[in-house]
Amino acid sequence: MSHSQTPKEGKPLAYGLGIAVGFLNGLFGAGGGMIAVPMLRSLGLAEEEAHATSLSLILPLAILSGFLYLNAGAFAIPDALPYLPGGLIGALLGAWLLPRLKAVWLHRIFGIVILFSAGRLLLQ
Predict the structure, then answer these.
(1) How far apart are alpha carbons 124 and 103 in whole angstroms?
(2) Coil, strand, or helix at residue 75?
(3) Helix 11-28 crosses helix 33-42 at what angle (to 10 degrees)?
C-alpha cells in the first residue's frame, strides 16, 4: 500500500480508528497507540510503518490534549519540564531502535508493556 493512501474500503475503518485513538488520548492523556498499531496493521501497514504512523498520529492529538489540559488548569508547564530531557533521550533511542528490531521482538516488547500496564492498573 502507498504511504499516502488508505484503500477506499478502509476509509470508514480509518475514521473509526482516528476517533478511538483521539478519544483514548483525550481521556488518558495518551495510550491511543495500543489501538492505533493493531488497527493500522489491519489496514495493511507493515509492522515498523504501523508503529511510526501511530506516533505521527498521536503527536497532534497529544498537543491538542495537552493544550486542553493546560487550559483547564490540570497541570503547569514547569511541572513537566524535569521529565522532558529523559523523555527526549528515550524517544531518540526508541526511534533509533525501531527499524533495527525484528517484528517478533517488537510484538513481544509491546505485549510486555501492555501486560505490565494492565497489571499495574488492576492492582491499584
Answers:
(1) 32
(2) coil
(3) 170
> In the predicted model, what is the mean pLDDT of the chain?
84
Measured between alpha carbons, how far is 124 from 108 in angstroms, rounded to an integer? 24
DSSP state of 90: H
pTM score, whole prediction: 0.68
What would the pLDDT profile of 88-118 be if each residue is shown by its tens digit? 999 899 889 988 988 899 889 888 988 998 8
Q: Which residues have a Cβ under 8 Å from the Cβ of 55 and sit 6 or more positions away?
A: 33
Question: Per-residue pLDDT tens for 6-28?
Answer: 555 667 777 888 888 888 877 77
Radius of gyration, alpha carbons of the chain? 16
Neighbours of 32 (CB within 10 A): 25
Q: Tell me the domain boundaries of the chain.
A: 8-122
Q: Which residue type is seen at 88?
A: L
